[in-house]
Amino acid sequence: MSETKIPPVIRLKDLKKRFGIGDAENFALNGIDLTIKKGEFVAIMGPSGCGKTTLLNILGLLDQSIDGDYELDGQPVVSISKRRQARIRSRQIGFIFQNFNLVSRLNVIENVALPLIYKGITRTKRLIIASDILRNFHLNEREYYMPHQLSGGQIQRVAIARALVNEPSIILADEPTGNLDSRSSHVIMEELSDLHKRGNTIIMVTHNPRLTTYASRVITMTDGKIETDTKTTILKRKTSKAKHSPNPRHHNKRASKSRGNKK
Ligand SMILES: Nc1ncnc2c1ncn2[C@@H]1O[C@H](COP(=O)(O)OP(=O)(O)OP(=O)(O)O)[C@@H](O)[C@H]1O
Ligand SMILES: [Mg+2]
């Protein structure tokens, strides 16, 4: 009962996304009704072309030429100024997308520390926080490498570390482990799982059914529509250590208490 009082993070009503006009008109999304509450971990599956990336782009305020209603934290997105939307995107939303762009003239640790500038954290602290998350991603030995000196998988992991470093409250992930081996995938899924346990909302597109075991809800799409929507039980894993830091929103504590002991 009290659940209904919590405003949903995301509410979509009859959302449609049309590409092209006239004969070329095509609905990538064709009537999506979806409510996502704070702290849900939603996995989205479905065949290629069914509209998953289009949906994530809209949720992340990257695409607004839509029909239907989108409310973010109870507020219609159309009524949020462009400036506030940009703030929301940089501070509240973490994007893990398929095409990763690191800043080529910055080294690994500087790339990862970049989003923290918006939080007004000093440079030294930014580098400490970035270093912590890189250690967690087994990239601490690459901190001072330039992007062109990294493998594709390493670039992907650095980009994910950068997307998660300021602990965004909404994480939108488009096949976050798409090109990674199982060990690297595991590291990233554990990181997402940690963020979920700390109360953040995660929406993850995946083609891998095994990854849905991390999710609390699995949605399947076909032809721009939601086909199934199922609540799931998250499997308990033994591998994560000390997940409940006393002050989960504080990066330094989080880093030293819940992460520092991992390799
Ligand atoms: N810019 C665009 N112009 C025209 N059509 C587009 C555009 N972007 C996407 N589409 C179309 O919208 C549909 C949904 O695309 P989308 O990228 O969302 O699929 P997806 O579910 O993410 O697929 P995949 O699993 O292959 O990544 C596709 O039919 C695609 O051709
Ligand atoms: Mg896609």
Bound heterogens, unique = adenosine-5'-triphosphate, magnesium ion
Radius of gyration: 18 Å
Oligomer: single chain
Strand order in the sheet with the most strands:
6-7-8-3-9-10
Compressed to H and E, one letter per element, the order equals EEEHEEHEHHHEHEEEH
Quick recap:
The chain is α/β, with parallel strands linked by helices. It contains 7 helices and 10 strands.
Structure write-up:
With about 260 residues, the chain is an alpha/beta fold. The chain has one domain (about 1-260): P-loop containing nucleotide triphosphate hydrolases (Rossmann fold, 3-Layer(aba) Sandwich). It is about 30% helix and about 25% strand. It contains seven helices and ten strands. It has helices at about 50-60, 80-90, 110-115, 125-135, 150-165, 180-195, 250-260, and strands at about 10-20, 25-35, 40-45, 65-70, 75, 95, 170-175, 200-205, 215-220, 225-230. Strands 6-7-8-3-9-10 form a six-stranded mixed sheet, with helices on both faces. A four-stranded antiparallel sheet has the order 2-1-4-5, covered by helices on one side. Strand 9 and strand 10 form a beta hairpin. The longest helix is centred in the last third of the chain and has 16 residues, at about 180-195. It is globular and about 50 Å long. It starts with 9 loop residues before the first strand and ends with a helix.
How are the SSEs ordered, and which strands pair?
Elements: E1 10-19, E2 26-36, E3 41-45, H1 52-59, E4 67-72, E5 75-76, H2 82-91, E6 93-96, H3 108-113, H4 123-136, H5 152-164, E7 170-174, H6 182-197, E8 201-205, E9 217-222, E10 225-231, H7 251-259
Parallel strand pairs: 3-8, 3-9, 6-7, 7-8
Antiparallel strand pairs: 1-2, 1-4, 4-5, 9-10
Helix pairs in contact: 4-7
The structure holds adenosine-5'-triphosphate and magnesium ion.
